[in-house]
User: Which sequence fits this backbone?
């Protein structure tokens, strides 16, 4: 019995020794040099001790592999979003071109000025959607860059600096993602030119559309703004339970509060649009009165 137990105890001690100390000295040195990053990544596994273990290295290897796969996934999503946005923008531009060709007839008296309203509305949608597309691409680039930096931090432990080392003939290069963002800005300027041309034909649209456009952009920026912060979450599961009336009334109160906040914001936005429309109507009335006085 003793001979059977002794090898087992020696093996256990040996495995414990390997688990705690048999780590590549370079790994230990590199982690010590970048302690802030690895403390955040490993959390309490590393923050309370000075030496790393083989299990820590295994976790870092898994994080390295996941960073690669998620980065590839983000790149795929980035170009999928870009293709969807370009498709919708191309459809809006084509529709504007068809309406413009219909409006600009040789005979000026046959031109339907309602088409200008439709072109202005489509141009307005184009401006808003292009801004949303640009912000979407900026967000996608942010997350892609996040995983690229994780790879750059983790790769010295496993594959060397293959990702961070570039073999090029020149230090100067252009960024494909930034060129794409610049292209969205060019489309945005084109929409503004089309919108400005329509407003030149009917100056009564200038202030209402300008107010609605500014309100829409502000709403998009505020609604989509996000920053890193600590999240408080609950761990729950799907099951049926009997609750007291107080809990139900508390949930109802939260729902009413959210409903009031959403209603207040929606009514404010609707009031802005209503005032813009009234301004446009008032401008038409004043123009009609001036025209009648000019007849006398």
Assistant:
């Amino acid at each position: 019995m003793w001979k059977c137990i002794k090898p087992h105890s020696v093996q256990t001690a040996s495995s414990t020794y390997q688990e705690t100390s048999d780590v590549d000295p370079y790994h230990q040195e590199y982690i010590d040099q970048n302690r802030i990053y690895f403390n955040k990544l490993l959390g309490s596994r590393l923050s309370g001790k000075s030496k790393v273990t083989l299990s820590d290295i295994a976790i870092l290897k898994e994080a390295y592999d996941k960073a690669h796969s998620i980065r590839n996934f983000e790149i795929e999503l980035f170009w999928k979003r870009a293709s969807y946005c370009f498709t919708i923008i191309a459809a809006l531009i084509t529709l504007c071109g068809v309406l413009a060709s219909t409006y600009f007839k040789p005979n000026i008296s046959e031109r339907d000025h309602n088409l200008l309203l439709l072109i202005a509305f489509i141009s307005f949608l184009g401006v808003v959607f292009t801004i949303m597309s640009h912000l979407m691409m900026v967000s996608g680039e942010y997350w892609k860059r996040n995983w690229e930096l994780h790879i750059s931090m983790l790769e010295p432990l496993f594959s060397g600096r293959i990702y961070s080392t570039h073999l090029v003939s020149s230090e100067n290069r252009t960024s494909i993602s930034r060129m794409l963002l610049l292209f969205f800005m060019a489309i945005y300027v084109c929409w503004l030119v089309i919108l400005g041309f329509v407003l030149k034909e009917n100056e009564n649209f200038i202030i209402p559309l300008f107010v609605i456009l500014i309100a829409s952009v502000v709403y998009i920026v505020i609604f989509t703004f996000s920053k890193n912060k600590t999240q408080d979450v609950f761990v729950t599961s799907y099951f049926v339970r009997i609750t007291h009336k107080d809990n139900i009334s508390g949930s109802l109160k939260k729902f009413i509060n959210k409903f009031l906040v959403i209603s207040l914001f929606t009514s404010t936005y609707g009031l802005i649009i209503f005032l813009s429309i009234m301004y446009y109507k008032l401008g038409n009335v004043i123009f009609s009165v001036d025209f009648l006085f000019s007849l006398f």
